[in-house]
Amino acid sequence: MRRTLKLIVLLTLGAAATAPAAAKKTLIEKALACATPTACPYFPAMYRGERDFRLAFEAAIGQAGIARPSWVPNGVAAPVEPIRVDGTTQLFTSVCEPHNCGEHRFMLLYDVATKRMSGLYISPVEGGKAKKRYFGDPGPAQRDVLKKDERD
Asked: Model-level pTM greater than 0.85?
């Protein structure tokens, strides 16, 4: 009896040690799996909670010579949703300056596989028209997605 009890305890402990804990999904995993916009995480949570996402954003805008606006971490945002672009799954979102979205916004595509980001930055008016700058070297299909949310 004692031997059986020891065996049961050992088996239980062994199973508990080898069984993965109910793994929490990362925000990236949640974004990739969301079926409706209300189930998707938003840009501020991704920016603060996903290091690779944040670093990809900062690297892409930095390489383009765009200084990160102070409002970015807490901007007004759209859900981070999965979309297919040129046969790859990417995450699409946007973020804009609170109370001033018209000419202060980013449209973004994050490639989860390469951990690279591309986007379109719309900044304040120059000569009566908003300045639009692509960054992160988006291809033609990516540009089509990025400009779908443009508002003039």
From this structure: no
